[in-house]
Specification:
Largest sheet: 2 strands, antiparallel
Helix content: over 70%
Number of strands: 2
Number of helices: 6
Order of helices and strands: HHHEEHHH
Length: about 110
């Protein structure tokens, strides 16, 4: 019972993610340096639904990464340090309308007509 509580507490902490990243990095380095390297490379270049597995993994990780950034930004805007401040609206305006924001800055700095 005690080990289960400790394991759940470890998984809830930020250390679990760090250990997972370190383990994945060590595994990747070892796998790339041994005979597994060529077979893993060949496996990742196999086609799956018209694209390579490497492409699917990279796109999937990018989606998860940007989803997490968007969720974290939303949490900060609604509950965190970015909540209800005018300067944050100005800081995030390039995200909402980058063309107009750039034109306003470029027009002031470079006198573009």
């Amino acid at each position: 019972m005690q080990s289960t509580k400790l394991f759940k507490a470890f998984l809830a902490s930020e250390r679990a993610g760090a250990f997972l990243l370190m383990f994945a990095t060590a595994f990747s380095l070892v796998a790339a340096s041994t005979f597994l390297g060529k077979s893993l490379q060949h496996t990742f270049h196999q086609n799956l639904f018209g694209m390579s597995i490497e492409h699917w993994v990279n796109d999937g990780l990018m989606v998860i990464f940007f989803l997490m950034i968007g969720l974290e930004l939303e949490r900060e805007v609604y509950e965190g340090e970015l909540s209800w401040r005018f300067d944050n609206v100005v800081a995030l305006s390039p995200v909402w309308c980058p063309r107009d924001h750039w034109r306003s800055i470029a027009g002031v700095c470079y006198s573009i007509h």
